[in-house]
Amino acid sequence: MDTVGNFYVNLVLKADASHVLDALRSLRRTALVAAVPEQLAVVVDRQCEHQDLAQLETLAVTLSRRLECPVVSCVNHDDDALILALHRGGVLELQWGWRAWWAPQNVPRGSPERFVAAVRGALGTVPRPMVRHGVRGWLWTRFVAVAAHQQLAARTGLPPESVGAGYDYVQRGDVALRPGIRFVPA
Description:
With 186 residues, the chain is α+β, with helices and mostly antiparallel strands.
């Protein structure tokens, strides 16, 4: 069955990629990790790829506690819903969600400004320039979760490699990477 929208799950950690790899190996996770210039690590995990939110939260909480670092988790479901969460010290601190008007109502909402500020503060990131595409760009971010993720990543300073990155997409080579960045198996 072909899918129309994006389906992906990933985590961004404020931690050295080698420590993240060690932690994932000790947890016996099948995952891929990329070190990015922002001094962050992007993780895609095969077990989380099925969009089990409990599995993702457990991994994010475990890594934030074990590595003593902030973790931002992300789920994009069929480009209809986007859920991001900030974990610190083994605790879910804040969630933010975007959804298309037809998507389920149980997607967390809240202030994107509050979420952006919390992520910037936790990760020590700065915003990146964002490309605007006139009316099409405005409409695109209103109806497609990956576009909303791209916009939020630019505002928070999350690495561009986290937008659209899921285990299956990375395995197939369907994720745009900046020169010199690659995902390494845990």
